[in-house]
Amino acid sequence: MLCRSSAAIxxxxxxxxxxxxxxxSEAVAVHSSAVVNAASGDAIVGAASTxxxxxxxxxxxxxxxxxxxxxxxxxxxxxIKTTLRQKFxxxxxxxxxxxxxxxxxxxxxxxxxxxxxxxxxxxxxDLNERAMRHFDPSLQRGVIHGVTVxxxxxxxxxxxPVG
Length: 163
Description:
Elements (H helix, E strand, L loop, with lengths): L1 H26 L5 H7 L4 E7 L26 E5 L16 E7 L2 E11 L5 E5 L1 H7 L7 E10 L7 E2 L2
Parallel strand pairs: 1-5, 2-4
Antiparallel strand pairs: 1-6, 2-5, 3-4, 3-6, 4-7
């Protein structure tokens, strides 16, 4: 009986440490600009918009992404223009996630590319709400022009702000 309660306490402690580590990685930039820039591919410049298939009046997308994940407004994710799919490693159902560095208005963020779509002409990426709030906290702009998107090589990236 004592062993079971000790194991339960130990397990709870491990889960607490993991959750604190995850919370800290959300608040602080995990990757330096130098590391990210060294791993990034050719830049694509255009406009970024935002999407959320669960908000009334939003026409793009559906609840499931091209990768098979359900849309989640709370993670750092985005949909790339369908014609750019191969440049980002062929985003498809069940495949390992692809990542991109998005730069605009003096800020940088790494997003997971988990969806594709026929975006409005001139737009190259649709950011989910969390990623768009990094660039436009009030979501009043709707579209950000002059956005640079660079595919990142490898699959070890932690999405979020870049320091």
